[in-house]
Amino acid sequence: MADDLFAVTDKPVSIGEITQKVIRPECGAVTTFTGTVRELTNGKRTLSLEYHAYKSMAVKMLEQIGQEIQEKWPDTLAAITHRTGHLQISDIAVVIAVSSPHRKAAYEANQYAIERIKEIVPIWKKEHWADGTKWVGDQLETTAYPQGKPPKGDAL
Amino acid sequence: MADDLFAVTDKPVSIGEITQKVIRPECGAVTTFTGTVRELTNGKRTLSLEYHAYKSMAVKMLEQIGQEIQEKWPDTLAAITHRTGHLQISDIAVVIAVSSPHRKAAYEANQYAIERIKEIVPIWKKEHWADGTKWVGDQLETTAYPQGKPPKGDAL
Amino acid sequence: MIKVLFFARLQEEIGKESMEVEKAGVSVSDLKKWLAATHHLPHMTQTMAAINENYANDDDIVNEGDTIAFIPPVSGG
Amino acid sequence: MIKVLFFARLQEEIGKESMEVEKAGVSVSDLKKWLAATHHLPHMTQTMAAINENYANDDDIVNEGDTIAFIPPVSGG
């Protein structure tokens, strides 16, 4: 079951399918976050994106995020699927679904999940522009990991 | 277009369809809230629910919520569909999708939308239990509308 | 003539979805009192009103041809 | 023998996804320095490491049979 809830795939991701995985009789609220490929970042036009993953570890880190969420918000259930490969504008890169008896926890846990994905999941994004390409996050101006490791999950 | 974004329907609601309505090239983040029929409320088992709407006014109020959201979070786009009729446990009662260039506004605007729906949209829920039925929200212990009108949209 | 709409519990109590009444010119609050008295509707005071699909105040006047809806506390979502 | 994995920009810089090296017993930080020097990898200091799919510290030791992955700052989501 846990294997189904957290996945990294090179196939298109369905918002409805990921959300359905967490709908349960005891829940009244489900939040879904969908990350899509945005055309403009800081005024620069992206043509397409490429996501590359250390797949086995990425799935393990998604599962870890799921565990962190269940510790922080005990009645929630999360499912996350991240896409890899070449994506066009508006394609879906990631879907995070969290169900909960009440909505507050579902919003909080969902937002926590996307923050943690950006911290600990070994997936990389390469921007393709008209004038070249760049791996995002490999520049000195981005996260430098001062402790050599990503931060522990106690942000929220 | 606005007619498509805000709807009240007696047909099943698709999470993916409502979310797709707001996905745009300029957006990288979409939040979707799905309200489902919960089996237990305060320990009491719900068998099914019935939603009844003042349909034409409910659509108008959903459109108003959409306008309030665009005033508060100018780059967002919202779509909301609310179901009416007889619903079973885990059936989808409402789907709210909000897209935004960045995720913070998408979460905030989405949460605002569900709060406002519970304040101003003329839709009523009737709980069906083993031992009877009740219209939710018609008891003295719930919202009493001290000003005779629902609150204005300046909560967030 | 004004058209009156009832919803949810109120609709069940009065046993109909709508009615037409010769009450043009009356205030929302007077119409509430009249309906409560003539149709035994104990919850009218907790009920909002909308005139032509816009929420109304108790002292707003209902005019000839208007549709007034009585709206118990909502519970959608 | 230990297995070394490279990702994203680092993979492009070194021109391969993985290599095997006879470096069992070395610390993560010494392995980083050795790779940076022998393969001209200027960004190794900004790179995290994972041993057998768990994030490791710079002074952790890489043992025989381990897989160590060098992980540039991630940018998923």
UniProtKB/TrEMBL annotation, chains A, B:
EC nos: 2.8.1.12
A GO MF term: molybdopterin synthase activity
Key word Transmembrane present: no
Pathway(s) per entry: Cofactor biosynthesis; molybdopterin biosynthesis
Assembly behavior: Heterotetramer of 2 MoaD subunits and 2 MoaE subunits. Also stable as homodimer. The enzyme changes between these two forms during catalysis.
Family the entry assigns: Belongs to the MoaE family.
Name this protein carries in UniProt: Molybdopterin synthase catalytic subunit
Organism: Alteribacillus persepolensis
From TrEMBL, chains C, D:
One of the record's GO molecular function terms: nucleotide binding
Domain of life: Bacteria
Gene3D superfamilies found in the cross-reference section: 3.10.20.30
Single GO cellular component term: molybdopterin adenylyltransferase complex
CDD domains registered for this protein in UniProt: Ubl_MoaD (cd00754)
One Pfam family here: ThiS
Assigned keywords, A-Z: Molybdenum cofactor biosynthesis, Nucleotide-binding
SUPFAM superfamilies: MoaD/ThiS
Biological processes, Gene Ontology terms: Mo-molybdopterin cofactor biosynthetic process
Pathway named in the protein's UniProt entry: Cofactor biosynthesis; molybdopterin biosynthesis
Function: Involved in sulfur transfer in the conversion of molybdopterin precursor Z to molybdopterin.
Family, similarity comment: Belongs to the MoaD family.
Quaternary assembly: Heterotetramer of 2 MoaD subunits and 2 MoaE subunits. Forms a stable heterotetrameric complex of 2 MoaD and 2 MoeB during adenylation of MoaD by MoeB. During catalysis MoaD shuttles between the two heterotetrameric complexes.
Protein name, per record: Molybdopterin synthase sulfur carrier subunit
Organism: Alteribacillus persepolensis
